[in-house]
């Protein structure tokens, strides 16, 4: 599978099946998987440490219509996978899970619903995002070595913590999943399927959660930065073609 650099972050590109298979191949092996969206890329563009965290990942998967369009503009085709879908798909393999994040009680509700869907799942530990202690997470990881560690603390905190915690249990597949626990728990309803197919789930989220409107400036910055980068790449390609002639 091909890898492309976008705002300094290496991202794997391919069809949905290829991206999903690449992530599935890490189950039982371990690693760090991030679904990279425009907000994460803007953060990485201004924070070298965050960019390094993302580039230490085993796999960065494109997430969001904005990322897909950026690659299409430079002639690179890719599908996208959002974290909430990928996280659920991977659990089909079964195994033990460690959840960190969400409001009190959300982890338990999320696990209860997921375990009904995937009966071979077991809970190593379920910790909410308000009262967890980082040293306690490390102790639990070392003791239980779960198959999966899902961290839902928001970007960039979740990726930075995964970057530290993954070293404690190398065989664990770690993912940062934002607000996915609320969806798994049934507390947040996803966009209708037609909006997801059209790549408009971001609009649904903003309509349902107006606080997300404050992210619009960051999305505007992403559009500007990605357009500038694509222009530079396309100019370089044209220059090389002219040299060959």
Tally of strands:
8
Low-confidence stretches: none
Taken from the alpha-carbon principal axes, the silhouette is globular
**Total domains:** 1
User: What name is given to the CATH topology?
Assistant: Rossmann fold
Helix content: 40-55%
- The average pLDDT value, as a whole number, equals 90
Most strands sheet: 6 strands, parallel
Work out the strand percent: 15-25%
Give the termini separation: 30 Å
CATH class: Alpha Beta
Count of helical segments? 12
Secondary-structure-derived class: alpha/beta
CATH superfamily (homologous) name: AF0625-like
Helix/strand order: EEHEHHEHHEHEHEHEHHHH
Rg, rounded, reads 18 Å
CATH architecture: 3-Layer(aba) Sandwich
How are the strands ordered across the major sheet? Answer: 4-3-8-7-5-6
Provide key terms for this protein.
245 residues; alpha/beta; Rossmann fold; six-stranded parallel β-sheet; two-stranded antiparallel ribbon
Characterization of the model:
The chain has 245 residues and is α/β, with parallel strands linked by helices. It has a single domain (2-188), classed as AF0625-like (Rossmann fold, 3-Layer(aba) Sandwich), CATH 3.40.50.10700. 50% of the residues lie in helices and 18% in strands. It is built from twelve helices and eight strands. It has helices spanning 16-24, 38-46, 48-55, 65-73, 83-90, 106-117, 134-144, 157-165, 180-184, 193-197, 201-208, 216-244; strands at residues 2-6, 9-13, 31-36, 59-62, 95-101, 121-127, 148-152, 173-176. The strands form two sheets. The chain has a six-stranded parallel β-sheet with strand order 4-3-8-7-5-6, with helices on both faces. Helix 8 links the parallel strand 7 (148-152) and strand 8. Helix 2 crosses helix 12. The two termini are 30 Å apart.
